[in-house]
Amino acid sequence: MALVSASILACDQTRIGEQIIKAEAAGIDYIHVDIMDGVYVENMTYGPQLVRDLKKISGLPVSVHFEVCHPETFFPIFADCGADIVTFQLDACANPLHLIQEIRKRGIKAGIGIGPTYGTERLAYLLPCIDWLIMMSAEPGYGGQPLNPCIYEKLREAQEIMAKTGSRVPVSVDGGVNGSNGQGLVEAGADVLIAGSYVFQDDAVEERVQNLKNL
């Protein structure tokens, strides 16, 4: 059974709390919050107060995904607001090991994100240091994009690296995940399916979450 992380990027922004409560009742495992700065990607999204407010209405882990330049400057304020998992894009950080250590010092799980045009070759050196891995199956920045098929090969590569190194972390897939491609992603090595548009479109949250959970 796949774990499901619901991305609030696809929520009706006037109904985020309501929709997250509905998704939690449907069985999601994580709340996924994309933080975008308008620099690393063109889009801009949320501030730290939203994380604090989500923690008030839900007991689920809040996974914060930085799609920002200089994630080390953003991390402390989101840590103070209760983020449970903090992931940053590997290509956006000059000193990833230092940031990983700083995140873990706060008792927060540390993750790295790898964009669809970047390879998995650095994973062997970073896996022993991290708690979470997001493999991007669409370019960072905007919801509703189709899944890039290169993700299947990269998932298999990540699983091979974990087997060789003996270091294993949950592998999440982010971008274009839906009920049609989810089974293939799980078979290729995904542990967590991050889904936004698929979960929250058409107000069919319970059905969509169960479709993913039953894969």
Automatic annotation (TrEMBL):
- GO MF, any single term: metal ion binding
Q: Name one Pfam family in it.
A: Ribul_P_3_epim
Q: Which InterPro entries match?
A: Aldolase_TIM (IPR013785), Ribul_P_3_epim-like (IPR000056), RibuloseP-bd_barrel (IPR011060)
Q: Which SUPFAM superfamilies match?
A: Ribulose-phoshate binding barrel
Q: Which domain of life is it from?
A: Bacteria
Which sequence ranges form a coiled-coil region, renumbered to this chain? Answer: none
CDD domains reported in the protein's UniProt record: RPE
Subunit record text: Homodimer.
Q: What is this protein called?
A: Ribulose-phosphate 3-epimerase
